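Lab notes, practical 5.
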Amino acid sequence: MKGGYVYIMTNKLNTTLYTGVTSNIMKRVLQHKKGVFPESFTDQYLCHKLIWSKFVPTIEGAIAEEKRIKQWRRAWKEELIAKEYPEWKDLSDGWYHERDFE
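Output from the prediction step:
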């Protein structure tokens, strides 16, 4: 079985948080950044900045972790992020080339 990633994305001002799950984080984050799904929450709220991620050995475990985090209050999510990434910088900076956005 293949593992998965639980991740949190935000917008430029860090006012909106989105929690998701994927088996391919590089592909999924690029989809968010490119607006591949125009009706999606992340596209509507411009959540294009990856600020936290965690690898889970099974996709089932990743889905369970995503559901658990989605139930949390915002303050708890902020604590989780601040523990590992206090600057809230885009963790995907440097992952892609300009041609990826064409």
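Observations recorded by the TA: The radius of gyration is 13 Å. The domain at 4-101 is CATH 3.40.1440.10 (GIY-YIG endonuclease).
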